[in-house]
Design a protein that fits this description.
There is one protein chain. By secondary structure, this protein is an alpha+beta fold. It has two domains: about 140 residues, no CATH class; about 110 residues, NTF2-like, domain 1 (Nuclear Transport Factor 2, Chain: A), CATH 3.10.450.100. Helix 7 runs antiparallel to helix 8. It starts with a helix and ends in a 12-residue tail after the last helix.
């Protein structure tokens, strides 16, 4: 009888642990200046991948503008690699950083780099970014990390809905770069089957994009934005294309949407036309 009571107490205490309760709640958009106090150097915490729900433990080892972290054990490294489909990648992913009763929206990349000190079968460290953090080289927030932080914080719709035409195009190309169906779907005018498209995109970046002052476009309902994009396509390598991205909105108060079908027709190397419509 006493053993049963003791087991029941353990089960109850585990089900009400701060970490479990934190994961159930929405993630806070805590800025880096505050997040770095929650996760000081050498602190341990849990990373939860937003899309898969898989989690692993890490330790922050360094980083002044963002957190340089390492998986805690070889088991944690294995879980992280599973999240990335068994292959290390620079792709950003939306995550929750959880410690005690704190659950903070964040973004990680999945590429080991630099030095590592733990016995975890992870050759280096990887980066975790929070709201208003930045890379080592630039002061402003990395665009892709920003999208993932807002995605983790449940604010992605708001970010995209308030984007200017230039921001919309930048977010749209980043959606290809990060192979993120949600970002592309939210920005697209029509439903699109992204799976056969994104599987071929290894990287994408804007090489040239004109400045279009938002105040000059306040009353416009359509805008054609010329852009030069540098792609890295599986099986083809580097492809540089000058194209136009067609933006539409039903009213000046509405969010800009991309005609993705027209974009894919103008860039046929991305996918076979028969696979575009759902």
């Amino acid at each position: 009888m006493l053993k049963r009571i003791g087991l029941l107490v353990i089960i109850i205490s585990l089900s009400f642990s701060p970490e479990i309760e934190a994961v159930k709640r929405g993630a806070a958009m805590t800025p880096w200046d505050e997040a770095r106090q929650v996760f000081p150097r050498y602190s341990k915490f849990t990373v939860v991948d937003v899309e898969t729900g898989l989690s692993f433990n890490v330790q922050r080892r360094a980083g002044s503008r963002h957190a340089d972290v390492q998986p805690l054990t070889a088991k944690d490294t294995k879980i992280m690699k599973k999240i990335y489909g068994g292959k290390w990648s620079w792709k950003r992913r939306a995550i929750y950083a959880v410690k005690g009763n704190k659950k903070i929206a964040a973004s990680m990349n999945g590429m080991p780099h630099g030095a590592g000190a733990l016995q975890n079968k992870f050759p280096g460290h990887f980066c975790i970014h929070f709201n208003k953090s930045s890379t080592h080289r630039r002061r402003e927030m990395d665009l892709s990390h920003k999208l993932m932080v807002y995605k983790a914080g449940g604010k992605l719709n708001m970010l995209l809905a308030n984007a200017s035409p230039v921001e919309t195009v930048s977010y749209y190309v980043a959606g290809y770069k990060e192979q993120d169906k949600r970002i592309l779907s939210l920005l697209s005018l029509k439903k699109t089957n992204w799976q056969p498209i994104l599987k071929n995109v290894e990287n994408a970046k804007i090489a040239r994009l004109p400045l279009l002052p938002a105040e000059d476009l306040q009353d416009e309902l359509t805008v054609n934005v010329p852009v030069e994009i540098e792609w890295q396509i599986e099986g083809e390598g580097r492809v540089v294309e000058e194209t136009e991205i067609h933006l539409f909105r039903p009213s000046p108060a509405s969010a800009w949407k991309v005609d993705s079908h027209a974009f894919l027709e103008d860039n046929p190397f991305l996918v076979d036309r028969d696979n575009v419509d759902e």
